[in-house]
Write a structure and sequence with these properties.
By secondary structure, this protein is α/β, with parallel strands linked by helices. The protein has 19 helices and 19 strands. Iron/sulfur cluster (SF4) binds next to loops.
Length: 543
């Protein structure tokens, strides 16, 4: 919650996401309705929960297409949610209307991957940065904010000084506890010659000088013994907007003199700096950074990440950093949430996740990151193969099971892990009917070979089995291949399912404690781990 001065008064997380869902529906047009075709849900985000504390950076990582960006857009209400809740500073974002929603949109900003597409090429960058200020009618003044001055005197009796403060100085001075305070000093000069140059925050009358510490305008007049001091903003709203845009451009590493240039005159890194300045214009608390460096050269990426770190400290910002790149995530994240096919599969403090990942997907992602330490080079982790399955038809149970190098065999089965993975891959292709038997037959014919069942089965074995199978597995696979060669796909699928069905496909794993953080994997269940370790002795994620 915030006080009237816009400051948070609660220790609760700034952002609380619970069960967030975003489904896109296909086949839900009027024609589909007339044809009575059922809509198909594409579950881009499916029950995601996490918190982000004020001042924290949560990294959200996963491969392309796993729902990260949709998650960021939905929690900012750039997309309407299908389900779940998001609370921002204690308020339910999805129930916000009118002024509350407008205030949320000021406070929570989005930085896009490609700044070129988010900047209007027809308008100069200074105007781009000013645009949100104009849209939201910045600077704001609150009628219930009080204004006052703290007055110091030097060589002047305090009771001679009368200070009046304009009611709208909260346009420039951030109120504290509902009061915007100007800090004024009035002092006696030795002579009128000491009065010096005119400045906004300084004025003189005879031998009296008045100064104000804040970025305000001060005026002093003397009338006999009486000294009248006026404190005001002293500039138009338009001028204040120009000044803020110039300050922000300077702060992100550009020059205010470049304000009249157009986006195409800047490099990718400079354009991202403009995008950041624009996002900061309304002094937000929270930024969603969607792949902020992925369109940039490697040499520029670190500069932008360092800038984001500096700005976070300076402007008290909270970040959700979305990236497919673990090295980017590691650079500035305090905690990391790993997302796979619309779900969070692991969430942990950054160092714990990189030092001791618990989920096989996280482990495989880490395998793709170049090693920096000898300890990490020694890790024995399987790599990731294949693509993320379609969210139109996500795998049952654990969504990672179709690619998991540690998928858990049934307890009664004595099988090596690589052999089990191979059989499961074959099962998957039979169940999806994604084996082009006609194509294989045609190829055999073109090579002058027989296209009979024996040759077809041999060809399938050659193409799909790249590891040693025990006799039992080899026979089961051969029987399944013979069944599909006779167009009995369902029988082949059922035969393999009956023998090889995994807990990973029948039960969806919940997030549970692992290595002092949370991950969703059946290997973290004691029984499954013990059974699995007996088989290959290498896969306990908690070791
Ligand atoms: S639940 Fe099974 S498939 Fe999923 S990550 Fe764990 S071992 Fe792999």
């Amino acid at each position: 919650m915030s006080d009237s001065g816009g400051h948070r008064t609660s220790d609760a997380p700034l952002v609380e996401v619970r069960g967030l869902q975003k489904y896109f529906y296909e086949q839900d047009s009027l024609v589909d309705a007339l044809l009575r075709t059922d809509p198909v849900a594409v579950k881009a985000v499916d029950g995601v929960s996490f918190d982000i504390s004020a001042g924290e950076t949560l990294g959200l990582v996963g491969e392309s297409g796993c729902g990260k960006s949709t998650c960021g857009e939905t929690l900012l209400r750039l997309q309407e949610p299908t389900g779940g809740t998001v609370h921002f500073d204690g308020e339910n974002v999805f129930e916000m209307q009118n002024s509350d929603l407008k205030s949320f949109r000021r406070n929570a900003q989005f930085i896009f991957q490609d700044p070129f597409s988010s900047l209007d090429p027809r308008i100069p960058i200074g105007r781009s940065v000013r645009e949100p200020l104009e849209t939201h009618d910045w600077p704001w003044t609150e009628p219930d904010v009080e204004t006052e001055a703290t007055v110091r005197t030097d060589g002047v009796p305090r009771d001679r000084v009368a200070v009046s403060v304009a009611a709208d100085i909260d346009k420039v001075v951030t109120p504290e506890n509902g009061v915007a305070t100007a800090t004024v000093t009035v002092r006696q000069l030795a002579s009128a010659a000491d009065s010096g140059e005119e400045e906004r925050g300084r004025d003189t009358s005879d031998t009296i000088e008045a100064t104000v510490e804040e970025d305000l305008t001060i005026g002093v007049q003397t009338d006999g013994d009486r000294i009248d001091v006026d404190v005001s903003v002293g500039r138009s709203n338009k001028q204040l907007r120009k000044e803020r845009a110039a300050m922000l451009l300077e702060r992100v590493g550009l020059s205010a003199d470049q304000r009249d240039r157009y986006p195409h005159e800047f490099s990718g890194g400079q354009r991202q700096r403009v995008g950041i300045a624009r996002a900061l214009a309304l002094n937000p608390d929270f930024l969603v950074l969607d792949e902020p460096t992925s369109a940039l050269d490697v040499s520029v990426q670190a500069q932008i990440l360092n800038l984001l770190s500096e700005l976070q400290a300076e402007f008290d910002l909270t970040y959700l950093l979305i990236s497919h790149d673990l090295s980017v995530i590691r650079h500035i994240s305090d905690r990391v949430a790993v997302m796979y096919l619309g779900e969070i599969v692991e969430i942990a403090p950054s160092e714990k996740l990189f030092r001791n990942p618990a989920h096989p997907y996280t482990q495989a992602l880490l395998e793709s990151v170049p090693r920096v330490s000898t300890a990490e080079q020694d890790r024995n982790i399987e790599t990731l193969s294949g693509d993320v399955p379609s969210p139109r038809n996500p795998p049952s149970g654990c969504r990672f099971r179709t690619r998991c190098p540690k998928v858990i065999p049934p307890p009664a089965l004595d099988i090596e892990q690589p052999a089990y993975r191979t059989v499961m891959d074959i099962r998957e292709r039979i169940e999806n009917r994604s084996l082009d038997l006609d194509g294989i037959r045609e190829q055999l014919a073109n090579e002058g070979k027989s296209t009979g069942t024996d040759e077809l089965v041999r060809e399938l074995e050659e193409r799909l089995i790249d590891t040693d199978l025990d006799r039992r597995e080899a026979e089961n696979v051969e029987t399944a291949f013979r069944a599909i060669a006779n167009d009995e796909w369902d029988r082949a699928a059922e035969l393999l399912r009956a023998e090889y069905e995994s807990i990973c496909e029948t039960v969806s794993p919940e997030l549970q404690d692992a290595n002092d953080h949370q991950a969703a994997c059946h290997l973290l269940d004691d029984r499954s781990v013990a059974e699995h370790r007996d088989r290959d002795g290498t896969v306990d994620s908690r070791e």
